[in-house]
Write a structure and sequence with these properties.
It is a single chain. This protein is mainly beta and 311 residues long. The chain has one domain. The protein contains two helices and 19 strands. The chain has a 19-stranded antiparallel beta sheet that branches.
Length: 311
């Protein structure tokens, strides 16, 4: 039976120009919509409003889904902006590719297709305002993608070709190091926030001519059993540390597996510690922010290994 509801995301050749190829995602939910700022002049003749003139239009909203080793790369590229692709072992594993995503000065725009059994909605010129990755025991990797876009059009939905690569789950965590030390976490969230200019309209057009990106902020939090003062003392002393995560999925070929690495070489703690609530177990919550590391050359790097030849 054909799927009637789906999300498709494709990188645009230029801002607002529809993508030519798409990756299909079996999404959990979305609330992408068009915002129309009508011009409603307040005049002296009557108490009520009599005129409505078409004003500026833009797109906004979010998409929630679960991370898969294939389609996750599209969201990482949208959030960070730069990708370098290589083959770790072209001889013994010719279908395995490694993609390294890092922040760049500019962000690519994407076309999003949202299909239902009623209609198809096409959103052009979409730029990522934030990407949140979250994980807890017994769960899949949650992906929450927020965007600002240029405009909406209609399209006729077709048959999607969903990503069939494995989902990333809590049991895929192969390594988690804080300050270079293996650490048992109970939950983690990492958020990439791009400060977008979403109101720079020009005379003569109702639509955004571009969506410039300003600052970048990468924050997060993790929970762990409160068993010593390691993180609390690090927070109180104002010390910097690092965070590294590695997910491993099934083998692809040649001994190489599906994998995701998240490397934040320099982070600072914003809060740390545990509070008492009756006789409940003590769980420490650490909130952090990532900083640029001049030695590594990035604030954050995500390395995704799969069978995709490129993004």
């Amino acid at each position: 039976m054909a799927a009637s509801r789906y999300l498709a995301i494709g990188k645009e050749p230029s801002f607002g120009q529809e993508a030519t190829s798409y990756r299909y995602v079996d999404l959990a939910s979305e609330d992408v919509s068009t915002e129309h700022e009508w011009i409603l002049p307040e005049l002296a003749g009557y108490r009520w409003k009599r005129y409505a003139i078409r004003g500026t239009v833009k797109v906004g909203g979010s998409v929630d889904c679960y991370g898969q080793y294939g389609s996750l790369g599209a969201f990482l590229l949208a959030a960070l902006g730069s990708v370098a692709t290589s083959q770790p072992d072209a001889t013994n594993a010719p279908s395995v590719y490694k993609h390294e995503f890092t922040p760049s000065e500019a962000l690519p725009s994407h076309t999003l297709l949202v299909a239902s059994e009623v209609t198809g909605r096409k959103f052009l010129g979409c730029v990522c305002s934030s990407l949140e990755l979250s994980l807890a025991p017994g769960e899949l990797l949650g992906v929450s993608f927020e965007l600002v876009g240029q405009k909406e059009e209609a399209f006729t939905p077709g048959e999607p070709s969903f990503d069939e690569t494995p989902f990333l789950s809590f049991s895929d965590i192969a390594s988690c190091r804080v300050g270079g030390v293996e650490t048992a976490l109970e939950a983690i969230t990492i958020t990439v926030f791009n400060d977008l200019v979403d109101d720079a309209f020009e005379l003569g057009s109702r639509y955004l001519p571009e969506i410039p990106v300003q600052g970048l902020e990468i924050t997060g939090s993790f929970d762990l059993k409160f068993k010593d003062r390691t993180h609390l003392d690090r927070f109180l002393a104002g010390e910097e540390t690092s965070l590294y995560l590695r997910f491993e999925g099934p083998e692809i070929e040649g001994g190489l597996k599906y994998a995701l690495e998240l490397d934040l070489p320099r982070i600072i703690y914003k809060t740390a510690g545990a509070n008492i609530s009756a006789r409940e177990r003590l769980v420490e919550r650490v909130e952090f922010e990532a900083l640029y590391d001049p030695t590594a050359g990035y604030v954050m790097k995500a390395v995704l290994q799969n069978e995709e030849a490129g993004y």
